[in-house]
Amino acid sequence: MTALRVRSVAALRCAALAALALAGLLLLAVAVLVLAGPLGGISYATGDHHANTQLVLAGSLAGPALLGPPVLLAVLTGMRQLSNVNRVLAGEWLGRPTADPYRPRPAGIGLYRRLGLAITDPATWRDLAWIITSGTAGLLLLLVAVVPFAVGLFSLLRIFTGLPGLLAWDGPLTQYVATAAVIAIALGVAPAVLRWYGFAAHAMLSPSGTAVLTRRIQHLAQTRAETLDTSAAEIRRIERDLHDGAQARLVAMGMALDAAGQLIDEKPDAARALLIEARDNSAKALKELRELVRGIHPPVLADRGLTEAIKALALDTPLRIHVTSELPAGRPPAPVESAAYFAVSELLANVSKHAQAAQTWIDLRYDDNLLKMTVTDDGRGGASPAEGTGLAGLERRLAAFDGVVAISSPPGGPTVVNLEIPCELR
Amino acid sequence: MRVAIAEDLFLLRDGLSRMLEAHGFSVTAAVDNGDDLLAAVAADRPDIAIVDVRLPPTFTDEGLRAAIAARKLVPGLPVLVLSQYVEQLYARELLAGRSGGVGYLLKDRVFDSAQFTDAVRRVAAGGTAMDPEVIARLLARNSGDGTLAALSPREREVLTLMAEGRSNAAIAQRMVITERAVAKHTASIFIKLDLQPSDDDNRRVLAVLAYLGT
User: Fold this and answer.
1) How do A415-422 and A370-377 pair as beta strands?
2) Least CB-CB distance to B140: which of A302, A312, A318?
3) Mind listing the pLDDT tens digit for each residue in A144-161?
4) Backbone angles phi, psi at A50, to 5 degrees
């Protein structure tokens, strides 16, 4: 029964795809008419009305010239929508998810810029190729399944309603056998037809190699610039902390020790006070250096790796945190590990500051070459990168590793933040 | 009192040895790695081992693991672990045996030699010495706990000092109150936290640390 249902669904999907292919052809026809308008005008003008040639030519060119661009843009947009529907269907029905190949379109630009961008985008021409192919060879392929299916359904309708139809086979028995046969053919070929069509759609609608590389380069250039900015700011902060903290204390210590050396014979009590001051300053300098190191690279992370470091972090955060980890034995590369640690640390800081949560859960796992971390809290929700709670910065920093952040935080909670960073374990 | 030291930095190892000897300890071994510590502990049976967390060859938590291994090798061997930083996670691992004779202090604490040698003696005698920073963080983590909030400020102070491993006498001296007053505070704390009272200083410390979730 299940097989029968799957095959019927495949046949219906073939029919839907055939309808889409036809819609594509129709759209193309509109485009051709709009563009061919001026040419038709010229032949008409030169053929019959010699006297008015100039006028008619001007008129027939002016009309489409005014109408042409908006219509053309509408056609191109329609083509995109149609191709996108095909992309979605290739993913949903055929298990071949197909990425959007278009170049980015800046918002708020004029009609002609938009048209120019659309025409120069190679993906547009690939869409056109797809519409032509799917409307011809593709449609023929689909009809192999759709025609017998339609014939069979019609025939069934006739049997049940007794109405005279297009198809009349001699005698009831022949009719039953013939109906069963065409439906069997349709259901038999539908899955294969759908698969082949899916292959073709995926091949033609996926971003081209160049488009993929172009996009990759844009992404890398952007994330590299952001990473450089972030690390430069980080280095400035460390420099400032050292300058105002440990360095200043060491200077004070040196001065106190020098003064103590001069006073030690004449005023031993004053010298002792200075020595104690110097000792206290050294303790404070150490404390500041410890804090600084913790912010650069937490010792437990260096000692024990991500799971233990996050457990240590959970212990140090005044929240009820449950850590589960299914990370396998290896360790991610050090920069990824560090980015992952600080991302979780920042999320926990956000939870303490904003969420009013009673409990927080951290889950770490690794599959499909992805380091996956989930931080969930039962707080009041409503977290969003737009609110400047550092979530946007988090996204930017993980982007340098091709990592992604997904946030679900409806008002009233719970908040679930998923982090994924692709990496190899060593 | 006989002490074995494992510390990889020569300056610190040397300074520590000299300071301990100046305070009447005898240093049986001063080594720079975990394996040598285990050998020295097995051979000399010192009264206490003082170990730096970071030791070669990995310079991660080698010293912590060496300290735990040494306690397995010589059951009941008191160990005092020193580190540039303290982690609740490591304190928890050291205290896992619930047997006392454990110390975990920041290296900064050697600046105050009187306090430091006091801690060494306490651990060698089977007591506990937890760094104030560890205790501060434990208390911060438990700050959401309603029971802790029910303690008076004085009781909180006593609890902190007790968790660091100090005896009633030491707490009294530190807070400039009588030992009787400390005993009263302690009794009140144990009732509020619903802990089994005990006259033994060390058992009390361990109970408090367990309550705080080490």
Assistant:
1) antiparallel
2) A318
3) 888 888 888 888 887 777
4) -55, -45
Same-domain check for residues A281 and A312: no
The DSSP letter of residue A361 is E
Interface test with A, best of B68, B134, B141, B148 (most A CBs within 10 A): B141
Residues of chain A neighbouring B140 (CB-CB closer than 8 A):
318
Same domain, A288 and A309: no
Q: Which fold has domain B135-212?
A: Arc Repressor Mutant, subunit A (1.10.10)
- Kindly report, residue by residue over A257-304, the tens digit of the pLDDT: 999 999 999 999 999 999 999 988 898 999 899 989 888 889 999 889
Shortest Cα–Cα distance, A338 to chain B (Å): 16
CATH of domain B2-130: 3.40.50.2300
User: pTM of this prediction?
Assistant: 0.71
Q: Whole domain around residue A363: which residue ranges?
A: 300-422
- With a cut of 70, say whether residue A171 has pLDDT above it: no
**A316-329 burial code (b ≥16 CB/10 A, e <16):** bbebebebebebee
Please give the distance of CA B89 from its chain centroid, rounded to a whole number: 14
Question: Does the predicted interface ipTM exceed a cut of 0.95?
Answer: no
pLDDT tens sequence across A221-239: 888 888 888 889 889 989 9
The residue from A296, A325, A344 where one domain ends is: A296
Asked if B141's CB is within 8 angstroms of A282's CB, the reply is no
Q: Which residues contact A326 (CB under 8 A, 6 or more apart)?
A: A364, A365, A366
For chain A, what percent of residues have pLDDT higher than 90? 25
Residue with tokens 């996050």: A310
CATH at residue A309: 3.30.565.10
Residue B88 to residue A287, Cβ atoms within 8 A: no
